[in-house]
Amino acid sequence: MDEDERIDGQEPAELAEPGAAGGAAAEPETTGDKPDEPATLETPPATAEPAAAVVGSAPPDAPPPPAEKPPRKRRRRWLMALYIIGALIVVLIIAAFVTAHYTSASSFCDSCHEMDPYYQSWQASTHSSVECRECHIPPGALPYVETKLGSFREIYVHFSSHPDAPLAVTRDIPNSNCLECHEPPPDPSLPTVTFSHDKHSGLNCISCHVRFVHTTVNPPYYQNPAAMSSCLKCHNGSIAPDNCSYCHTAPHEVRGECSNCHEQQSWTNASFEHPFPPTGGHANLTCTDCHVSKPGVENIPGTQLPKADPACISCHGDHHNGLTDCASCHTTEGWQNTSFVHSQVGPHIPSGDKPLQCADCHKSGYTTASCTPCHSGTPTGD
Fold first, then answer.
1. How many Å apart are CA 139 and CA 219, to the nearest integer?
2. What is the Cα gyration radius of the chain?
3. Selection from 20, 23, 19, 25 nearest residue 39 by Cα
């Protein structure tokens, strides 16, 4: 039997064996009659046509079947959903911008009754031509969005009937908002104040210039930044120095710390008491007219003023030959208007017919008198 005939004569079961179906070599058939015959008979891969005859199997070189495509209706539904979502996002963005712009107008602030007094005070202020947002919203997109998101709180407090005063919750106004319109302010030129903005550069403008737009809304009550009470909020001795000379220059010669004489409540109500009232001709004198620095003269404690001699002759000189009790005859209303009444009468006393100078009779002082320089003998009578 030749090779072809032997292969053709095999049973179908042998051809359906796994080895034959995969194209592997078939086991050689040996018999006892021919032990020396080499087992070289193999089934060539190219001759395994019967394996392709298996029902349901595809040819080895056939392309894979195409993937199943989704139905058109499902794809259209997804596209429609995406279009709707995109349109909603665009509408929401446009609505957000329109709402933000509308609620940023100053006229919108008057929509709530809580804002009525603030809107009216703004209209009456020098900033009535400036929109509220230009002061109350910091510049930039992010602060603008933060402010608008924070505004939802206002809706809550409006409908909850427990609104806080807007001034109590308003954010600080940054200096950059002020400088959008205002130039850096110069230092004030005042005769008795040495104020420097540079020393206060670490503060916000509204630390001093606060509520000058809403001056009529109370409480808290408006404080004029130029008033002493506004300065004393910080200049209390703990936050900032509270000595007057830190800011003020005395309108008179240096006399030490202002508080030695003056009070903060009223500058004119000085607590200093002069040893005698500076009345009459002394009322218009300055301290240095009498308090003149001289060698050996000490200063008054707590001041830079030298001590002054209280005797009249220290300023007016000796006009009566050693008589120093000027106040027994003279008053501060006028040097000539004396209250002296001579104890003697006669033609030569100051009120007589022929008055003489005091020194004509009082040669050795005013405790004694003599007529002998002009008259011989001892005077008689009064």
1. 29
2. 58
3. 25
Say what the pLDDT of residue 120 is: 92
pLDDT, tens digit (0-9, with 9 covering 90-100), for 89-136: 999 999 988 988 898 899 898 888 888 888 999 999 999 999 999 998
Q: What is the pLDDT of residues 156-200, one digit of tens each?
A: 877 876 666 665 556 788 888 999 999 888 887 777 777 888 888
Q: How far apart are CA 208 and CA 130, in angstroms?
A: 20
Tell me the domain boundaries of the chain.
75-179
The average pLDDT across 50-65 equals: 58
Q: Which residues, 6+ apart, have CB-to-CB distance to 121 below 8 Å?
A: 213, 214, 215, 216, 217
Q: Which CATH superfamily hosts domain 75-179?
A: Di-heme elbow motif domain (1.10.3820.10)
Looking at residue 147, what is its pLDDT? Answer: 86
Q: State mean pLDDT over 338-361.
A: 77
pTM here is 0.46
Distance CA 203, CA 216 (A): 25
User: What span, in angstroms and rounded, lies between the C-alpha atoms of 370 and 349?
Assistant: 13
